[in-house]
């Protein structure tokens, strides 16, 4: 295991990964790593500043598996470093956006589940892994599960989610043993799998805790999206907290190789105000970005909300 000198003088361990699908290490470099000279724990925390000068700077080396073509980061900081950073995270992941606006996106994810609810024999336990501030739990409140549990490692996010009536929130990393006594009828993972060092392990562990015909929803970024192709290395998703870059094909494969029956893969919409889209447009020069934001904020169309398929994909799968 290699090490990387931190800004506190400590050595941060790193780990070389193999492809999660074919377990091969033979890979072609797509983007060379961009890391500070002395990367420390702080670089794993919030990377996006809420200013017009948002710029994605640091990322691991991104490689393309020569065996199956999967895109992933390698090497990365060791799993214990990553897990510790999540548990110490003192911010949410809302990028300054209003709850009601983000709730529209989450309701779009929830709508994917709704057609399958009438056939669900039992609605006893719903679990949301990586629930953040609980917006997806709010969006699915009407689904009527007897028990609703959110798992969130981040302190601030877990505290906010715990304020939702009728929801049991646990501030921790997911442990399948926690659900040994009661099978899960519906489990969601919104932007979780691409943040994990070993997403296949989680998908496997989740299946072991699902009720017969239990339903799973997972949302990730789409590395084949138009915005990803246009922005290339400047795609904001390429950073130090994403380890695998999925496509509709590889997201489906992730579940099928672990024994799930995939029901559908969808390209989903996100809802953003125009100024936010400009702020997070990495292909715009910083100076021009700042000017455009100021112009937009001075006009009524600053409140214009756009629903766009910018690059998220969702998979629906059943455990049997």
Produce a short descriptive summary:
Helix content is 25%, strand content 26%.
Topology:
Elements: E1 3-5, E2 11-15, E3 27-31, E4 62-65, E5 71-73, E6 76-77, H1 79-87, H2 99-113, E7 125-129, H3 135-139, E8 147-151, H4 155-161, E9 167-170, E10 184-190, H5 199-208, E11 210-221, H6 226-231, E12 244-245, H7 248-256, E13 261-273, H8 274-279, H9 286-297, E14 305-318
Parallel strand pairs: 7-8, 7-10, 8-9, 10-11
Antiparallel strand pairs: 1-2, 2-6, 3-4, 4-5, 5-12, 11-14, 13-14
Radius of gyration, taken over Cα atoms and rounded to an integer in Å:
20 Å
Beta-strand percentage? Answer: 25-35%
Amino- and carboxy-terminal Cα gap? 38 Å
The spatial strand order of the largest sheet comes to 9-8-7-10-11-14-13
Question: Structural class of the secondary elements?
Answer: alpha/beta
CATH topology heading of the largest domain: Rossmann fold
Number of domains: 2
| CATH class identity of the largest domain | Alpha Beta
Average pLDDT: 85
């Amino acid at each position: 295991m290699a090490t990387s000198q931190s800004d506190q003088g400590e050595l941060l361990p790193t780990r070389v990964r193999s492809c999660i699908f074919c377990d091969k290490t033979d890979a072609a470099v797509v983007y060379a790593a961009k890391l500070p000279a002395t990367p420390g724990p702080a670089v794993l925390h919030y990377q996006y500043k809420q200013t017009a000068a948002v710029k994605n700077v640091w990322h691991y080396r991104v490689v393309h598996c020569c065996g199956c073509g999967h895109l992933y980061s390698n090497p990365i900081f060791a799993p214990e470093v990553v897990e510790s950073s999540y548990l110490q995270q003192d911010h949410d992941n809302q990028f300054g956006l209003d709850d009601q606006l983000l709730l529209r996106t989450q309701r779009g994810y929830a709508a994917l589940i709704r057609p399958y609810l009438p056939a669900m024999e039992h609605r006893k336990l719903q679990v949301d892994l990586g629930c953040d501030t609980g917006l997806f739990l709010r969006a699915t409140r009407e689904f009527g599960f007897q028990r609703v549990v959110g798992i969130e490692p981040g302190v601030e996010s877990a505290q906010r989610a715990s304020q939702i009536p009728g929801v049991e929130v646990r501030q921790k990393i997911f442990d399948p043993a926690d659900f040994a006594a009661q099978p899960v009828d519906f489990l969601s993972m919104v932007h979780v799998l691409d943040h994990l060092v070993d997403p296949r392990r989680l998908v496997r562990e989740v299946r072991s805790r699902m009720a017969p015909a239990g339903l799973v929803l997972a949302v990730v970024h789409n590395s084949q999206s138009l915005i990803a192709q246009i922005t290339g290395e400047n795609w904001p998703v390429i950073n130090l907290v994403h380890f695998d870059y999925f496509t509709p094909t590889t997201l489906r494969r992730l579940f099928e190789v672990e024994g799930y029956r995939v029901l559908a893969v969808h390209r989903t919409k996100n809802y953003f105000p125009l100024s936010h889209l400009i702020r997070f447009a990495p292909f715009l020069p910083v100076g021009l970005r700042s000017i455009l934001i100021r112009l937009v904020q001075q006009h009524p169309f600053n409140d214009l909300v756009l629903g766009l398929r910018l690059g998220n994909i969702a998979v629906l799968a059943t455990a049997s």
